[in-house]
Design a protein that fits this description.
The chain contains two helices and four strands; from the N terminus they run βαββαβ. It is α+β, with helices and mostly antiparallel strands. The strands form two sheets. It has a two-stranded antiparallel ribbon. A two-stranded antiparallel sheet has the order 2-3. The longest helix has 8 residues. The N and C termini lie close together (5 Å). The structure holds iron/sulfur cluster.
């Protein structure tokens, strides 16, 4: 599975980072960045995608 963030929509709220720090962090521009993009075990990244207020996290099933 792959994870993608549309940084143009990210509002820098930090919810994804708090919920799922293994995958998400905030970059210098206060937009979410990914620590890893490809994973077998999607874990908390799916929850982060569901609660992201800007709906800019995509989980793609390969
Ligand atoms: S939860 Fe969404 S809007 Fe908030 S920092 Fe993460 S990607 Fe950006």
């Amino acid at each position: 599975m792959q994870i993608k963030i549309d940084q143009t929509k990210c509002i820098g709220c930090g919810t994804c980072c708090a919920l799922c720090p293994d995958f998400f962090d905030l970059g210098d521009n206060n937009k979410a960045i990914l620590k890893k993009t490809e994973t077998e075990n999607i874990g908390c990244a799916r929850e982060a995608a569901e609660v992201c207020p800007a709906q800019c996290i995509a989980i793609i099933n390969n």
